[in-house]
Amino acid sequence: MDTLLALLNGFSVAFEPSKLLFCLVGVFLGTAVGVLPGIGPALTVALLLPVTFKLDPAGSLIMFAGIYYGGMYGGSTTAILLNAPGESASLATALEGSKMAKAGRGGPALATSAIGSFVAGLIATIGLAFLAPWLVEIAVKFGPWDYFALMIVAFVTVSATFGDSPLRGLTSLFVGITLGLIGIDKLTGQARLTFGVPELLNGVEVTTLAVGLFAVGEAFYVASKRFREPEEIIPIKGSLWMSKQDWKRSWAPWLRGTAYGFPIGALPAGGAEVPTFLSYSTEKKLCKYPDEFGKGAIEGVAGPEAANNASAAGTLVPLLTLGLPTSATAAIMLAGFQQYGLNPGPLLFAEKPDLVWGLIASLFVANVMLVILNLPLIGLWVKLLAVPQPWLYAGILVFATMGTLAVNSSPVELGMLFAFGYLGYLMRRYDYPVAPMVVGLILGPMAEAQLRRALQISLGDPMILLENPGSATLLGIAFIALVAPFVMKGLNRFKAAED
Amino acid sequence: MSQEPLAHRPDKPALLVGLLLLAVAAIVGYDASTQTITSNYGLGPTAMPYVVCAGLVVLGLAHLVVAFREGLPRPEEADRSALLWIAAGLAGLIASIALGGGFVLATTLVFACTARGFGRRAFLVDAIIGFVLGLVIFLVFAKLLTLILPSGPFEQLFL
Q1: Closest by Cβ to B24, choosing from A167, A178, A411
Q2: Has residue B4 got a pLDDT over 60?
Q3: What is the CB-side half-sphere exposure of residue A432 using CA atoms within 13 A?
Q4: Which of B35, B59, B76 lies at the smallest CB-CB distance from A171?
Q5: A429 contacts in chain B (CB < 8 Å)
Q6: Is there a contact between A474 and A450 (Cβ–Cβ < 8 Å)?
Q7: Cys staple from A223: which of A4, A35, A112, B82, with CB 3.0 to 4.6 Å?
Q8: What does the domain layout of chain B look like in residue ranges?
Q9: All structural domains of chain A with their residue ranges
Q10: Which residues contact A436 (CB under 8 A, 6 or more apart)?
């Protein structure tokens, strides 16, 4: 009952006109960047951080959440009409979606993904609202050792478990943690890795790293391979509406997609790619019309789209209750909280219930706005794809510079932006994931602080980490998650040989 | 790139990453060893750097192993002139801010050079777009957010 009351209270915050406006701006921007290939919600939030730090915290965070949800909706449009997924979360959608569009069924494909996203978003947000308070109650009892172990789990799963190569993921993570060491140590005042450069005493700004890796790195990368033929937009023929048959074939995949997306998104393993592909392969197996798969089966669009939206809501569970980011966007949103001096976690639920519950309530509002905005405005979104690429990326770089200068207007900061941008380019080129680096920079110092606090309490005895059931279990999970990919790799090879 | 002798020749990018990681590990370790402030109880500020240093050494060595085995994924050919244009724009940006040229000049350079890097051939038009964009952003920041972006002689006219 408490949850319902809190949620109602949240709605009273979310329905304030200014909050509704922030939410609308967020979903609008989010859909736009989701549609545009190459710019995702993580980058957009990173670009907006410096602009918003003088605005109302609750409003800005509502806007960020709107961008996150909107990005998931918008990504499907590009995946279906361009066969070029705007986000990795839309990869699975592109498989069947673009085939449907080519067969003249682009309208129903867009409709099933929009309505499926709505259904999934709604269910998953309800899940978030009811799971969060329960998790908060557990999290209150967490000691620093538990938090430290939890962060180790996040480190391992974000970098090693998923992605192509655990080695490259872990390398990215460790470079991020190294960057996190730079600056003055908060407990003792010792300057670390600053080499006498005064600008480095405050540490590396999360926004500079994120904008450099995502925006500048992406610009370099796309420019470096612009020889490729541009993709053609497939015009939408026929009705946007789904037939009775389409509805009948869509509802079950929506629900199954949600069932994959929400829990997997909520796990510290995180990410939207895994549930979308799980959903795709499940629908392929369960489909009553297996011949249609590969030629444009509506189930293959409905399931993954529901899964990716549900996972976005799932990601917010550990972010809000534990302060643990499990995706790139969540990591940047955590930086967003921190810029207002807010630390997500059980304390935030107690201290700022209006803000937390207002944010959760506004997710419902965002979902409704998105389903209303998405289909009627499809023409506008398609036009957005016609913006010439040179202007698009030139504009992104101008905004990237603006963001960096607004945080700290020094040439050193810009030099770091440039360097991180080139690093981001090289990482994309050699297939190193960039998200673990951002997570490492944000969580590294937090993990260090928790570990030192834990060892102060235990008077320097490291066994405290293993003597506590909570932290011992978590460290065990982290260890398994670290070793599993190396063992599984052998298994996969075995399987592939069998085929 | 020939295919046959690959098995015996180390993969250069992987080798380079491995050596770089070892170098960073050395820097982190050296920096920690020269620190003067220590903690009286619990872990001091040097503990974490040593852990990170050890991790970097392991990853660096793993890269060296990879270099002699499968190597890193082979990227497709990059368009060097495009990269150079964007880099030139960013260098112009840093120079403009460092030498007091101001924000608007900086965005003009970034916009025009990036657009050129992406294959447009209308440098002057793009420069004008970048100029207007920069000016609008500068004014929005100055008037609405009361945040003054770096200003040169030109920006002073509006303040």
Answers
A1: A178
A2: no
A3: 28
A4: B59
A5: 75, 78
A6: no
A7: B82
A8: 4-68, 80-156
A9: 2-498
A10: A155, A158, A159, A169, A170, A172, A173, A176
> From its phi and psi, is residue A19 left (phi > 0), alpha (psi between -120 and 50) or beta?
alpha
Supply A80's token pair.
């279906």
In a 3-state reduction of DSSP, which class is residue A65? helix
Which phi and psi angles does A184 have, rounded to 5°?
A: -85, 130
> What is the reported pLDDT for A56?
87
pLDDT for B65-101, tens place per residue?
A: 999 888 888 888 888 899 999 999 999 999 999 998 8
State whether A397 and B110 contact (CB < 8 Å): yes
Specify which residues A191 forms β-bridges with: A184
pLDDT of residue A456: 85
Confidence of residue A498 (pLDDT cuts 50, 70, 90): very low
* Phi and psi, residue A165, nearest 5°: -135, 120
User: pTM for the complete prediction?
Assistant: 0.86
Residue A63 structure tokens: 């806007």
- Cβ–Cβ of B79/A225 closer than 8 Å? yes
CA distances from A120 to A14, A42, A73, A240, B47 (A): 20, 21, 11, 20, 45
Q: How many CA atoms lie within 13 A of A259 on its CB side?
A: 10
Structure tokens at A195: 């080499």
On whether the CB atoms of residues A48 and A89 are closer than 8 A, the answer is no
Tell which residue, A20, A30, A13, has the closest CA to residue A374: A30
Q: How confident is residue A427, by pLDDT bands cut at 50, 70 and 90?
A: very high
Both tokens assigned to A424: 């981001």
Report the SS3 class of residue A379: helix
Tokens 């998923």 sit at which residue?
A: A162
Helices (H), chain B: 12-33, 47-68, 80-98, 103-117, 123-143, 153-156
Tell me if B17 and A171 make a contact (CB, 8 A cut-off): yes
